[in-house]
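To fix ideas, we quote verbatim a fold written out as tokens:
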Amino acid sequence: METDCTRHDNPVNTGTAPLPTGTRLLHIGPHKTGTTSIQGALFAAKDAMPEHGVVFPASSRHPMEAVLAACARPGMMGNTKPTDRHWHALLDQVNATGRRTSVISSEFFADAPDDETIARVVEELGGDRVHVLITLRPLARIMPSQWQQYVQNGLRMGYEDWLEHMLRKAPYEQPNPSFWRRHRHDRLVERWARVVGPERITVVVVDDRDRDGLMRTFEHLLGLPANLLQPVPDAANRSLTLAETEMLRKLNMEFRGNGLPDELYSQLVRYGAVMHMKNACAPRPDDVKIGTPQWAVEAAAEIGAEMAQRIDGMGVRVLGDQALLSAVPKPAPGTSGKPLIAPEVAAQALYGALAAAAAAPVQHTAPAKARTVHQTSSKELVRVLGHRCLKRLRRR
């Protein structure tokens, strides 16, 4: 769902006091609420912020592996499993900030499975010094973005079928149990408030019409000068068009149907085909975007109203207009029509996969087979090719 970005009202931090010096601001997302944008801006300003008493203690834009390890969550499909080494390295960087204010941001903190995990994370990051920041957007804005992100991690279900499962088929956990764990926002706020206390929770309702509002809010809470945080272009984080997502979803079906290993998906598909396609091809004005049917938009608005009402009674600080969470947006332009994949987009995706495969050098020549290629089924050929590519990747 696209939004109008022409609003220039007062920023949502008006009338709020900055956090005390020495606070460790823990931004836990959840996903699709401006996390990548704010992480990119914070990382870009990493060298300038210490002059104003604020530190961004991480060696990358997003310390994903560290947070996944801390929350005992698996990595992306086919990625190397995160370990405690990643988490302890982040803790060392946080502890090195001393008594200065610091900010840690990862949407994967929202995936913490229970109160015990949340308590341990908060204690190891500084205990009473930790202040939790939760950013929220309307569900109708989140659902298409989250679906295409799940497709990028191997999901094979179409959008409307996925919506049916998430909104109409109890217990609403399949095929992605993480969705409501992240996006039943009232329960997310409740879990963290139960551990750290509502007085140390700030909820920010993101207004998509105010493109830079979230950055101004972070600046205010951290005591940074206005406009120090600036958007950082990131083509690799752009959303996929409907045609691109459908192409990837069909590839996922072939991939799973032929029993190829997850490691191959990570290397050739996610970081090969998809990454190269995103970087090389910008969406065209006539590309069809992912559109949410009206019944799902209205259902999301009803859930949003319920969540906003519950959050309002929890005693946490709320910045922004909670009415946005229950608003029913108008149909976004560009979400109707037949999705068509441009030849250059398909070519760049194919090239990305080939380039990723070629990056693994051939060290040994496979022995000759008794059967010829023409005597072998296509399904078996794909499986053999996949395992050979994986073997080469592991040698590297």
User: Anything to note?
Assistant: Residues 1-11, 362-376 have pLDDT under 50 and may be disordered. The chain has 14 helices and six strands.
